[in-house]
Amino acid sequence: MPDPNSSGAATPRVRFAPSPTGFLHVGSARTFIFNWLYARHNHGTMVLRLDDTDIERNTETSVQSIFEGLRWLGLDWDEEVKQSERLDLHRQAAAAIFAKGLAYRDFTPAHASDDEHSSSQGAWLFNPGMRELSREESGRRADAGEPFALRYRVPRGGGRILRFVDGVYGEQQKLADEVEDFALLRSDGMPTYHLASCVDDADLRISHIIRGQDHLTNTFKHLLIFEGLGAPTPQFAHLPLLMAPDGAKLSKRKHGPVVSVTTYRDAGFLPQAFINFLCLLGWSPKNDREFLSLDEIRDLFTLDGVNRANAVVNFTNDDPFDAKAVWLNAEHIRALPVDELSDNLRPFFEQAGFHPSPEKVLAVAPLIRERIKLLRDAVSAADFFFLDQLAPYDAAELIPQKGDAALARRVLETAQQVLAVTPFDHDSLDKALREAAASLGLKAGPMFQPIRVAVCGRKNAPPLFETMVVLGRDVCLDRIRQAEEGLRSLG
Ligand code: GLU
């Protein structure tokens, strides 16, 4: 049996429809990503629709920050429209619905400015006085210039049940009597979200509407509008909401910058890691793996893998990022080809005031990749590669565990002699310094620790010989000399 909700489109057409009233919210980013995945998995078309008809709340800054967030994600779209450029189409559609007798003018001043967000519950379901106004009187008052909202004439009293099958939440139904006579046009002539959205979805031949679960109940109104337009009803799939650990819906007003996509970017998440993380919020891949590349996610993505339960993003005041997001980011950093990792690291170094050459970043990147979880961690993990002068450190760190300052000095003196004459490549350094250790009667550990601290300024540092090669002979010798001097004060 054909699906009654099917539009019969051969390949899907989906849309992401942000309202530019703030930055790109992580929940919106996830809606965008799921639409993109659905389109790309099914060789369909992805439309970006800016829902910018709310002139009081829209800002150009917000439009820019949404695009900035989307560009960072790196996912493409095929078509782009702005609702504000389509107002004529919306008004014509409203007129057509009115002409069919499926809408009426509401001159009630208190309701005339109602937008789609108001009076969805409670006593007022429709305004009998206005609904029953004769065509003549309605026309006469409109001609006289009295402002009115245009409301959908929702079928009453016949026991009509509105139904659709949601791609995630399954069979949905509601008695039409429980749906208020919602506005299509506001009294200022602007279309409401419900009207503009459905008219555009119909005109753009959107086959699948994939959006947040907070729009699930709006869908009953949308069914009526599609019917009024004489347009096929698209398929609907609503996505579970993203919740904060406090149990509230994740919101910028309550939870601040943690809900903005650019916060993740600025902290040094890779877009593919962020996408991987967002996908796991509300979708379970059939193979039960968590670390997934974008190609793998696209190949695996189906709507029946989307869960109904809301997903929690974990964060605290001290730690704004979910531990799983951070873990995934570390995994993606490790999986990245080194030239791409370098390209991603460079802006973080620049921002910290370091300006290493691309070659140097390329050399440093593989040495620190295992040691960082966020790209910004690279600054503290690698600063000693770029500093002319190491930050002061405690000279006691130079002393190996079972040794004293005199031993550390002997190690550093020997190291200087050896390094002055050894070719500066990994294998030669390895061999020469091990031989030097043996000549001092030391194991590798007590030999290497003073050298490591001397050249890096810390115990915890990347592999020693590779690090020394990148730093070069002069820098290493200079730092070891300074370290030795520092030890003099300890006796
Ligand atoms: N502009 C609406 C929003 O941001 C779009 C909702 C929809 O996808 O229909 O919530």
Uncertain runs are 1-8, 111-125
Q: How far apart lie the N and C ends?
A: 90 Å
* The CATH homology group name of the largest domain: HUPs
Q: State the shape.
A: elongated
CATH architecture of the largest domain: 3-Layer(aba) Sandwich
CATH level 3 topology of the largest domain: Rossmann fold
Strand order, largest beta sheet? 1-2-3
The count of domains is 4
In total, the number of strands is 12
Report the structural category. Answer: mainly alpha
Helices and strands in order:
Elements: E1 13-16, H1 26-41, E2 45-50, H2 60-73, E3 79-82, H3 87-99, E4 103-106, H4 109-112, H5 128-131, H6 135-143, E5 149-152, E6 161-166, E7 170-175, E8 183-185, H7 193-203, E9 208-212, H8 218-229, E10 235-239, E11 242-243, H9 252-255, H10 261-267, H11 271-280, H12 294-300, E12 311-312, H13 323-335, H14 338-351, H15 358-368, H16 377-386, H17 405-421, H18 426-439, H19 444-456, H20 464-471, H21 473-488
Parallel strand pairs: 1-2, 2-3, 9-10, 11-12
Antiparallel strand pairs: 4-5, 5-8, 6-7
Helix pairs in contact: 1-12, 3-7, 7-8, 11-13, 14-15, 17-18, 17-19, 17-21, 18-19, 18-20, 19-20, 19-21
The structure holds glutamic acid (GLU).
Glutamic acid (GLU) is lined by residues 17-19, 51, 197, 211, 215.
Condensed summary:
The protein folds into four domains: 13-82 and 193-243, Rossmann fold, CATH 3.40.50; 88-185, Glutamyl-tRNA Synthetase, Domain 3 (Glutamyl-tRNA Synthetase, domain 3, Alpha-Beta Complex); 336-385, Helicase, Ruva Protein, domain 3; 395-488, Arc Repressor Mutant, subunit A, CATH 1.10.10.350. The chain is built from 21 helices and twelve strands.
